[in-house]
Amino acid sequence: MGDRKPYPSDVTDAQWALLGPFLEAWRAKRVSVAGRTGDHDLREIVNAILYQTRTGCQWAYLPHDLPQKSTTYYYFAWWRDDGTDQVIHDLLRCQARESAGRREDPTAVAVDTQSIRAANHVPAATTGKDAGKKVPGRKRGLAVDALGLIIAVVTAASVTDNAIGIKLLDKVAAHTPTVTVAWVDAGFKQDVGVHGAVLGIDVEVVKRTDTQPGFVPVKKRWIVEQVYGTLMLHRRLAREYESRPESSVSRTLWASMAGMVHRLTGTTAPTWRNT
């Protein structure tokens, strides 16, 4: 970080102690023909990604004292495409669960979707319209554990809750086979339950039992709603700015990682009121 003034989104020394070893190990495996492993400060690259995720700024508007756009995007795209962001996210999640006295992998998840309005520059070919909510953009689907830690994320266009639910269950079964129960709302139809049964996951529809209008926390399902609310603190996720759906997934993972390193180090994330 050098002599620059830190941004609220920067990782602390304690947080970098969690992230740094993974990324340094990643770099050590990528030696060029000339025997070099790259000389960019990976901590500053992470700081730039987290700054943009938190503030929602465009690539060209990254502050001059952070790594330049081309360098930051190069690493963001590389870690997105080779799965490094997913690997680090999942390892941090295991640590967070163990720190909370839980087993590394959960046995139950809460599943839900969210419609995100797309910015004007996002290609129409990668977006659609939520027929129910009349929102043009993409849908973000999450499967989270009882602690609100993300187990799977899916971003897609012009699909139903049913289709996203099936994709989420596929990812959960592939990467977290310990899961045997998934809690969903009434928007998910019978196809999701049938697909879950094939995967060995019991899909349980948890319905509201009251007539109160507006948002009401629902037992077992409330945790995923809370996660969506937390993600909205990251302005890059408040609207769909990513041209590629896979970039949107990666951005969600980075926001989740920011939350987990705060949780693991006992620090408080900044709010919109002081950023």
TrEMBL record:
Transmembrane segments: none annotated. Signal peptide: none annotated. It comes from Actinoplanes utahensis. This is Uncharacterized protein. GO terms for biological process: DNA transposition. Residues 105-240 form the Transposase IS4-like domain. The lineage of its organism: Bacteria, Bacillati, Actinomycetota, Actinomycetes, Micromonosporales. One of its GO terms (molecular function) is DNA binding. Residues 11-88 form the Insertion element IS402-like domain. InterPro entries: IS402-like_dom (IPR025161), Transposase_11 (IPR002559).
